Every structure is written in structure tokens, then in C-alpha cells.
């Protein structure tokens, strides 16, 4: 008998299953917006409880093939905690385990390197804050020097030092990782970073000088956005609306 991908298996609590469904939606949304890197990159969500276990995508699947049930449950060493025919992407464990182990306020971490983002993080100046979206990132970005593919445990402490108390980690010459206290919030932050990168690239291709924003204005924008995300259902409304849009245009996600 075929079961619906949204039918909850008995071994999962309602809370874990809801998290799995939302994380699978997040994978599908990243594909829907064209931000995937084929089968590479990763999105993780920490499971409730003191053990620092988290969910991540099975390596080798397209983002559209991720379902709530086939997400991997792993520990901070990347060890699978449940039987699965799939393994995780080793390049993701150092980054995700480092953040989930050190930052309890970050429940979801998304790593991408779209073309605009990769272009911005290759530039020495990184992100500027002179447009509507860039201003919202003011004071929220940590920068980490490129050390190669993130495979090795010894880089974890340096990545955490680079991130500090921020929620956006620029991996120089590589990509970004954004983390927030929930999946919807992390997705909205990723969308904001992506829009900032797109606009900065387009503005840089035009002739003429940019119109710089005063730092106080950029800081005000960043603080207001952070407050909206923290204290309202703003991000959840956005996430749910994007899921509806995706379903309308693509049909049922799974």
C-alpha cells in the first residue's frame, strides 16, 4: 500500500513531524526560487531536546526529492541516528554541527552559494548597505576567511569565532550560511540576503556613483527588520505564502 508522504510514521512525535514537514517545504522552496547548487549545499534544523540532534538532507537527492520521512537525523558528529539508505554530505557536517553545537538560539541553518552571493563574497568589501535589502543586513554579518571545503573539525572553532553573535556568516570566496530561531525565519533571512546580493550586483554593473546611506539609517533598518522577525508572525506569514505560491505553480510539492 502506498502511503502519503505527509502521513506521519508512528516513530515520530507530532512536534518532530511538523518540523520535518516544514524543513522539507524549505528545501522545495529553495529549489523553487532557483537557489540550489544541484545536489550540493544543505539546510539543517535542530530537533527539540538537549542532545543537539538535527535534521539534514540525504546526500545525492535533488531538493525536490526531499520528503519529511527521508530527512536524516544526525548527531553533532554527523552520525546517523536512524536507519537510512542515504548518507549525509560530509562537507556540511563541520559547518552545521559547529553552529548547532555552539549557538542554541539558531535552530535552522541554510547554506547556499548562488551566483550573486558568490560574486559578492568574492569581493574584499563583501556586502554593502546602500540599498533597501542591504541596509537590513547592517551589523548582522560575520566574515570567515576561506580555508577550502569545510570538511575538518579544526575549522569549527574559527567559524564560530567569525560568526560571533551574528546570524549571517559570509564564507569568503565561497557562499553564505544564515541561521535563525526557526525555519521560516531562516528562510526569510536567506531571501533578504539573496535580494541584497542581486541588487548589489546589478548596481555595480551600472555606471555612476552609488547613493550612500548614513550608517544610522542602515542600523535603523536592520534593527526594525530584526524586531519584526523576532516579535511577530511576519516570517511565518511570508514562508506560508511562498509555500502556497509554489503549490499553485507546481502542484503538490510531493
Task: For this entry, give a set of tags.
L-fuculose-1-phosphate Aldolase, 254 residues, alpha+beta, 8 helices, globular, 7-stranded mixed β-sheet
Structural commentary:
This protein has 254 residues and is an alpha+beta fold. The protein has a single domain, classed as Class II aldolase/adducin N-terminal domain (L-fuculose-1-phosphate Aldolase). It is built from 8 helices and 7 strands; from the N terminus they run H-E-E-E-H-E-H-H-E-H-E-E-H-H-H. It has helices spanning 14-32, 90-102, 115-122, 132-135, 156-163, 183-205, 215-231, 234-250; strands at residues 42-46, 54-56, 72-74, 108-112, 141-144, 168-171, 175-180. It has a 7-stranded mixed β-sheet with strand order 3-2-1-4-7-6-5, sandwiched between helices. Strand 6 and strand 7 form a beta hairpin. Helix 2 (90-102) packs across helix 5 and helix 3 (115-122) crosses helix 6. The longest helix has 23 residues, at 183-205. It is globular, with a radius of gyration of 18 Å. It holds the Pfam family Aldolase_II. This is Ribulose-5-phosphate 4-epimerase/Fuculose-1-phosphate aldolase. Belongs to the aldolase class II family. InterPro entries: Aldolase-II_Adducin_sf (IPR051017), Aldolase_II/adducin_N (IPR001303), Aldolase_II/adducin_N_sf (IPR036409). Residues 21-201 form the Class II aldolase/adducin N-terminal domain.
Amino acid at each position: 500500500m502506498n502511503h502519503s508522504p505527509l502521513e506521519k510514521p508512528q516513530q515520530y512525535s507530532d512536534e518532530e513531524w511538523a518540523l520535518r514537514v516544514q524543513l522539507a517545504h524549505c528545501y522545495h522552496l529553495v529549489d523553487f526560487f532557483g537557489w540550489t547548487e544541484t545536489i550540493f549545499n544543505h539546510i539543517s534544523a535542530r530537533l527539540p531536546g538537549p542532545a543537539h540532534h538535527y535534521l539534514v538532507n540525504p546526500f545525492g537527492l535533488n531538493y525536490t526529492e526531499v520528503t519529511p520521512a527521508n530527512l536524516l537525523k544526525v548527531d553533532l558528529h554527523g552520525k546517523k541516528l536512524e536507519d537510512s539508505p542515504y548518507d549525509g554530505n560530509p562537507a556540511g557536517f563541520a559547518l552545521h554541527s559547529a553552529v548547532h553545537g555552539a549557538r542554541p538560539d539558531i535552530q535552522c541553518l541554510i547554506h547556499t552559494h548562488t551566483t550573486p552571493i558568490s560574486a559578492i563574497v568574492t569581493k574584499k568589501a563583501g556586502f554593502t548597505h546602500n540599498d533597501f535589502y542591504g541596509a537590513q543586513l547592517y551589523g548582522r554579518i560575520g566574515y570567515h576567511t576561506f580555508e577550502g571545503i569545510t570538511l575538518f573539525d579544526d575549522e569549527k572553532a574559527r567559524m564560530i569565532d567569525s560568526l560571533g553573535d551574528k546570524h549571517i556568516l559570509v564564507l569568503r570566496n565561497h557562499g553564505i550560511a544564515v541561521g535563525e530561531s526557526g525555519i521560516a525565519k531562516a528562510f526569510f533571512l536567506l531571501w533578504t540576503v539573496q535580494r541584497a546580493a542581486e541588487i548589489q550586483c546589478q548596481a555595480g554593473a551600472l555606471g555612476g556613483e552609488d547613493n550612500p546611506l548614513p550608517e544610522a539609517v542602515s542600523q535603523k533598518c536592520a534593527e526594525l527588520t530584526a524586531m519584526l522577525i523576532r516579535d511577530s508572525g511576519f516570517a511565518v506569514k511570508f514562508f506560508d505564502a511562498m509555500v502556497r505560491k509554489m503549490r499553485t505553480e507546481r502542484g503538490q510539492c510531493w
